[in-house]
Write a structure and sequence with these properties.
- The complex is a heterodimer of chains A (about 220) and B (about 300).
- With about 220 residues, chain A is of the alpha/beta class.
- Chain A has 7 helices and 10 strands.
- In chain A, the strands form 2 sheets. In chain A, strands 6-7-8-3-9-10 form a 6-stranded mixed sheet, with helices on both faces. In chain A, strands 2-1-4-5 form a 4-stranded antiparallel sheet, with helices on one face.
- In chain A, helix 3 runs parallel beside helix 5, helix 4 packs across helix 5 and helix 5 runs parallel beside helix 6.
- Chain A is globular.
- The two termini of chain A are about 20 Å apart.
- Chain B is of the alpha+beta class and about 300 residues long.
- Chain B has 10 helices and 4 strands, in the order H-H-E-H-E-H-H-E-H-E-H-H-H-H.
- In chain B, strands 2-3-1-4 form a 4-stranded antiparallel sheet.
- In chain B, helix 1 crosses helix 9 and helix 2 crosses helix 9.
- The chains are: A alpha/beta (about 220), B alpha+beta (about 300).
Chain lengths: ~220, ~300
């Protein structure tokens, strides 16, 4: 379903964050991207989720070569991915529900249907009772759960997360792990960049290990 | 199509909410835009009224037609027929006897007239033309001068030409002024939108990452610019109407002193709509320029 061939990302200044990465992720798999800090995990996540474009190589998702797509087509591709960021990237000028509604507004869903799906997503991560709360009033774990609700509300085929438990205590991190596992169990492809070994110990996922930008496993 | 409408409705709603979110800023921006549009709009209305005043002023755009001294009643009737056929407007026949009486009535002229062996004045027509454009008046003067038994045709075209030149100059100055203020309006909107893009940068960044198109991101800013411009246009129309209302009484009194029933013509509904539309267009233009420049950093 996701197939990368010789994927390379070189930033201005010459830094090669990802070098000749080739891998395949099948539908329904849970894949961890691991490696030390600076190994290129975040860059690879951004490449897979099309937030960044590779310098060379190809990335094929569901048979579509994304590296050959025009810039204007990229937003529509991104809607197939649910993105969870380490710093959540929540909007603090609106309530929890309105944060979750953003992907549905982008997709042009009628308001009533969007609210129904937004509430369902909040319920799934255990935040329905806090739908009116501003994200700033939520704990770190709750903020990450809110970010997951926003990522899954549009029913993506792939859930991609970058260090989703990086800033959380062990209890909150365990809750987040369980939520990702739940989505994996119902068939969602889950790709997570992390250096948290708990994931490997608990769920035995496929692992892509990066070392200085290269896939070593 | 439903999604398209839904997104436009949401963008319009968001633009309204942003306008209402900071009422003081909105009010100040509207005042700046309103005043910028008021000056050229008021100038337009004033020139329009002046043009009407010039056209309707009796006695200043008349054509005087003097017949030969030998012309008789038949010739007078012939001239009347020709005026009727030419749809020349309204006219009044001034017989030579009446003209002499008027001359006699003038101060210091009675003795001179009494000393004349015979009436030296011709029969005349005073014509108030329908079409008072300077070119049309000149054409009519030339046509009448060619009619039989017409000795002289007099047109106070110099005054008309001067007035028309003044109006043209005023119109040009008005366009220049309008251009300047339009640029000002675009600049005000540009800056407002630039600040908004900065304030919304987090939302723009997130929206891009989760699949928002350029159109989705730009649309609320376009609506905001257009709405702000349209409201500024309506404010300008209100200021113009208010100004004319305040001036109506003193201008009416002044006109009455000159025997005129002149009253300001107020902007019609269509003109108010045009002003609001113009404001909306300029606001949209400012937003378009600002968003295009400001969003580059998100690429």
């Amino acid at each position: 379903m996701i197939e990368a061939s010789n994927l390379t990302k070189r930033y201005p200044g010459g830094l090669e964050a990802v070098k000749d990465a080739s891998f395949r992720i099948d539908a329904g798999q849970m894949v961890l991207i691991t490696g030390h800090s600076g190994a290129g995990k975040t860059t690879l996540v951004k490449l897979v989720s099309t937030i960044e474009r590779p310098t060379s190589g190809s990335l094929v998702v569901n048979g579509q070569n994304l590296t050959a797509l025009r810039r204007s087509a990229m937003p529509h591709v991104r809607r197939h991915f649910g993105m969870v960021f380490q710093d959540q990237k929540l909007l603090f000028d609106r309530c929890a529900l309105d944060n979750v509604l953003l992907p549905l507004q982008i997709a042009g869903l009628p308001h009533r249907e969007a609210v129904r799906r937004g509430r369902a997503a909040l319920d799934k991560v255990g935040l329905l009772a806090r739908e009116k709360a501003n994200p700033i009033a939520l704990s770190g774990g709750e903020q990450q759960r809110l970010a997951i609700a926003r990522a899954v509300v549009n029913r993506p085929t792939v859930l991609i997360a970058d260090e989703p438990t990086g800033n959380l205590d062990s209890e909150s991190a365990a809750e987040i792990l369980e939520i990702f596992a739940d989505f994996h169990r119902v068939g969602v492809t889950v790709v997570v960049a992390t250096h948290d070994q708990t994931w490997i110990e608990r769920y035995h996922p496929n692992v892509l290990r990066l070392d200085r930008g290269k896939v070593v496993v | 199509m439903n999604a398209w409408f839904s997104q436009h409705r949401a963008a319009l709603g968001l633009a309204f909410r942003r306008l209402l979110a900071s009422p003081l800023n909105t009010l100040l921006s509207l005042l700046v835009i309103g005043i910028a549009l008021t000056l050229p709009a008021f100038g337009y209305v004033a020139l329009d009224n002046l043009r009407d005043l010039g056209r309707n002023a009796t006695g200043v755009q008349q054509i005087s037609l003097f017949l030969n001294l030998e012309a008789g009643k038949k010739d007078v009737a012939e001239i009347e027929n020709r005026l009727r056929a030419a749809s020349a407007g309204t006219w009044r026949f001034v017989p030579k006897e009446e003209a002499l009486k008027r001359m006699q009535a003038s101060e210091g002229m009675a003795e001179i007239v009494a000393s004349l062996p015979r009436n030296p004045l011709p029969d005349a027509f005073v014509i108030e033309p329908k079409n008072t454009e300077p070119e049309a008046l000149e054409i009519m003067r030339k046509e009448i001068a060619g009619w039989p038994r017409v000795a002289h045709v007099q047109l106070d075209s110099a005054w008309v030409k001067r007035f028309d030149a003044f109006l043209r100059l005023g119109k040009l100055a008005l366009w220049m002024l309008a251009g300047l203020f339009a640029a000002g309006l675009v600049a005000v909107t540009f800056n407002t939108i630039r600040l908004q893009v900065m304030a919304q940068s987090a939302e723009i960044e997130v929206a891009r990452m989760i699949g928002a198109t350029d159109g989705f991101i730009r649309r609320p800013f376009y609506y905001f610019g257009a709405l702000q411009g349209a409201l500024g246009g309506l404010l300008a129309a209100a200021l113009v109407i208010g100004g004319l209302y305040l001036l109506a009484a003193p201008v009416g009194e002044l006109a009455a002193l000159y025997g005129s029933a002149f009253a300001f013509r107020r902007p019609a509904v269509g003109e108010v709509v045009v002003l609001a539309g113009l404001g909306a267009f300029l606001g949209w233009l400012g937003a378009q320029l600002s968003v295009s420049l400001s969003l580059r950093k998100f690429d």
